[in-house]
Amino acid sequence: MMATTTLERPATTRDNAPAPSGTPQKRLTFAEYMKIERDSSIKHNFIDGVMEPVWPTTNEKGEPMAGATTAHNTICGNLIASLHIALRGSGCRVLTSDQKVFIAGKYGYYPDVTVVCGTPEIAFGEALQNPLLIVEVLSPSTQDKDFGTKFRDYRAIATLRHYILVAQFTTNVEHWQCDENNRWSLNREHKLLEETLEFVLTATSVKVPITDIYEHIDFDETEEMREGA
To answer: pTM for this structure?
Structure first.
């Protein structure tokens, strides 16, 4: 039997978070960040007043890095398609990684996949404030943050009920769920293609076969990508 891991919803987001880089930076307001972001050629997260590229521009060796892999983008596309079909007619919509999510006035992220139900609450004309579900597809350069600081920040979103982490180099889908007492727990971890991701979103039963999430994914090829990263 799988042990249950429980996490509390943070009362607030991280206080006095350090700047992501070692170089001191002027802390921006979210409005200032949005103005800069609109003219930027790359996407940035907003972390307590500091802009940080969504994708690292160099690896640990200082070598240039590209953005997401083909496998990463394929999995995102599969999830968007599957969730769109499952939620059709429910009043929920599925949003891509271009959708910014705004958290407690201090954080802004671009989740890989976001679901909002009902009327979207938008800040600064672009940033969503009331997602019910967020998915992150794990990459070597982002996976620690996806489960660490980013998940902590996401848990401060009052409307969020589901957080799904999807590995791209092996079959592994973690489904975290928030209960009525604002406690987060690992609902299910799927490691087999024959399994099905299941949850309820605003009274709509959602079922996504794990094999659909990994359609067109060759794990031998993705392993070669990881070794070359």
So the answer is: 0.85
